[in-house]
Design goal:
By secondary structure, the protein is of the alpha+beta class. The protein contains eight helices and five strands, in the order αβββββααααααα. The protein folds into two domains: about 1-70, Thrombin, subunit H (Beta Barrel), CATH 2.40.10.170; about 75-195, Methane Monooxygenase Hydroxylase, Chain G, domain 1 (Up-down Bundle), CATH 1.20.58. It has a five-stranded antiparallel beta sheet with strand order 4-3-2-1-5. It is elongated.
């Protein structure tokens, strides 16, 4: 029985725990299985991605190597929400190159990197329309970010998206585009800065 507990302690993942798998986002470990593959016994985490209706089996020994991690802490979620309030930082390179960089950030599983994609690709209603590929990447990043915030904060994905959109709407550039609201937000920002 001690051997069964050792890998769980070594890797730090437990059954029923939500985790982040870089290429697929938030999933839940539903079991630990032992299978014989090519004559070797392997212990596998069985991870279910409910929204994608997908089950993945990851060898315990490879979990860390593939980038599987625990959910972000509250301070990382706060940092991610703060990042999306910032000004978009769009490089002056060809779209295909930027799209690859955005895709890599989304698939990194890093909440902060994903929030940068959300910030850079977000379009307010007053801004020009996005291309199809921009919209696809934005929605993929928004979905990944919302799933993790939902799991960390124990709220629905809809509430998580609302929280993200509230942060996006507090961006100085977007507030300035709305006119009078800029003065109100500037006062709030100064109050928050003094409080900090």
């Amino acid at each position: 029985m001690a051997t069964a507990k050792k890998p769980a302690v070594r890797n730090g993942f437990k059954t029923n725990e939500h985790i982040v798998y870089p290429a697929h986002g938030v999933g839940q470990i539903v079991a630990v299985e032992e299978q014989e593959i090519a004559g070797m016994k392997l212990e596998l985490y069985v991870i279910v991605f409910e929204k994608d209706k997908m089950t993945l089996r990851v060898p315990m020994a490879k979990a860390e190597q593939v980038g599987m991690r625990k959910l972000a802490e509250d301070d990382i979620v706060d940092k991610a929400l703060e990042i999306i309030k910032g000004r978009a930082r769009v490089k002056r390179t060809m779209w295909s190159r930027r799209a690859q960089e955005y895709e890599a950030k989304i698939n990194s599983g890093d909440l902060v990197a994903i929030s940068e994609v959300v910030r850079d690709l977000h379009r307010a209603s007053s801004q020009p329309e996005q291309s199809y590929s921009e919209r696809q990447l934005y929605e993929a990043a928004l979905d990944r970010m919302a799933r993790e915030i939902s799991a960390v904060s124990r709220i629905t994905e809809t509430e998580a998206i609302r929280r993200i959109e509230d942060s996006l709407n507090k961006s100085p550039k977007r507030v300035a585009a709305r006119g009078d609201a800029a003065e109100d937000t500037a006062d709030e920002t100064e109050d928050e800065a003094e409080a900090a």
